[in-house]
Amino acid sequence: MIKINEDFKKLIPALTQEEYKQLEDNCMAEGIREKILTWNGFIIDGHNRYEIAQKWDLDFETENKHFDSEDDVYLWMIDNQNGRRNLTDGWKYKLQQTKKEILAKKGAEKYKETVGRPSKELLSIVDNDLPKHNTQKEIAKTLNWSTGKVAMADIVFKKASPEVEEKVLNNEITINQAYQEIKKEEKQIELKNKKEEYKKNSLKEVELKPEIYLKDAVTYLNTFDDNSIDLIITDPPYATDIDDIKSFTNDWLNVALKKVKQNGRLYICSGAYPNELKAFLDVLMNQTKFIVDNPLIWTYRNTLGVTPKMKYNLNYQVIWHLYSNESKELDTSITNEMFSVQDINAPDGRIGNRLHTWQKPDELANRLIRHGSVDGDLVVDCFACTGTFLIAASKFNRIAKGCDISQENINIAKERGCTIVGI
Question: Helix H segments across 356-420?
């Protein structure tokens, strides 16, 4: 009597509809020529032929094979199918992994029979002596794959979701495609974790947190008395994001100039586009309260872009520095910080310290705060974004306050430890 063992049947992937139809047509036309192989009455090769024979009442022959155990049956079925069926790469790998697990189990059992169960103390030594079967190299040889492809498959079948694994088994996507998708997701998770860690550590062990308001720059600046701010350090939107950079700069900058003390300073970041430089110069050169220093240059070398054909790539931004004869002396005691050019890499998204497109590096923020202010000074950033300048000010014992009109930016500043006021 022929019997069906569902575990034996499920070991080998089912035929596609087209493959099954072709087999059925052949059996109807030519009869069932190959024997149905059994072990202890259970089919181990020929499940589809047996099903077709039952359906159409076709004659067939059987042959019983001898094996010592079910594990031996599984091993034979895997080797038997490996050369006979047009298996997908996913199924080829999965069958070899099943074989690897069976051989490892049989090897461990044989070791225990001949040597005995190792003591806990000797386990690490004995494990090294246990028989090793079906390594990456051996699987690669069996499947005629590179060891690199086997390594990719190892990762796919270990980490992929059931849905992705099913697609690999059905050849809807390749092992390489699934591997690349897994690595991409891992990089995204790693980057997210790095960003969270960066935000978490931004104001670690700082008692006086920066205050940030959800307000536009002019409205916020007008909450301060004239001549009440020690340092304004800010990074306003650039000409690339503002339709009328001239009017925009004129509106907020004239207010900012009034609010800074006569002995204070201003650091204002801007793009280096000619129309933007002119917009600033039109305001700065028409005021008499502060001296306009030669512009500082923040240059970065870690963003290359494409090779230019008509004009040079822009790899710097301008920082307008304003001071008066009454201003406190700069603290530029570190030699390489005393020059107009500040050469510091831009924040790098790959290491998690870049939270938005135009974020300034922490090192630049630290330098300017240290150069242009002292303990207890009121430092204001009226375009605070995610809080980089204000966080630096707090770390150096300054009173840090600012505003931004973007709820999204303020939410990030809050995650970095800033105090959000009024919302």
Answer: 362-372, 388-395, 407-415
Secondary structure (DSSP) of 148-202: HHHHHHHHHHHHS-HHHHHHHHTTSS-HHHHHHHHHHHHHHHHHHHHHHHHHHHT
Q: Distance between CA atoms of 270 and 283, rounded to whole angstroms?
A: 14
Residue 130: per-residue pLDDT:
47
Mean pLDDT estimate for the chain: 91
Strands 260-270 and 316-323: antiparallel
The predicted model gives 200-208 an average pLDDT of 89
139-152, pLDDT tens digit by residue?
999 899 999 999 99
CA angle 91, 92, 93 (to 5 degrees): 90
> For residue range 267-300, what is the model confidence (pLDDT) as tens digits?
999 999 999 999 999 999 999 999 999 999 999 8
State the DSSP code for 120: T
**Per-residue 3-state assignment (H helix, E strand, C coil) for 203-243:** CCCCCCCCEEEECCHHHHHCCCCCCCEEEEEECCCCCCCCC
CA–CA distance, 173 with 175 (Å, rounded to integer): 7
Query: How far apart are the C-alpha atoms of 376 and 177, rounded to whole Å?
Result: 56
Under 8 Å between Cβ of 354 and 348: yes
Asked if 412 contacts 198 with a C-beta cutoff of 8 angstroms, the reply is: no
Query: Could you tell me which residues are beta bridge partners of residue 394?
Result: none
The whole model's pTM is what? 0.71
Conformation bin of residue 64: beta by default, left when phi > 0, alpha when psi is -120 to 50: beta
- For 351-388, how does the pLDDT look when each residue is reduced to its tens digit (9 = 90+)? 788 788 888 999 999 999 999 999 999 999 999 999 99
Q: 169 with 94: CB under 8 angstroms?
A: yes
The residue written with tokens 């052949």 in the block is 26
| Whole-number CA gyration radius for the chain | 36
What are the phi and psi torsion angles at 248 (to 5°)? -60, -50
Q: Which helix (H) or strand (E) holds 274?
A: helix 274-284
82: closest CA among 173, 11, 167? 11
383 close to 217: Cβ distance less than 8 angstroms: yes
Residue 318: left if φ>0, alpha if ψ -120 to 50, beta else—which one? Answer: beta
348 has pLDDT over 90: no
The DSSP annotation for 40-88 comes to TTEEEE-HHHHHHHHHHT----EEE---SSHHHHHHHHHHHHHTTS---
The two beta strands, 399-404 and 378-381, are parallel
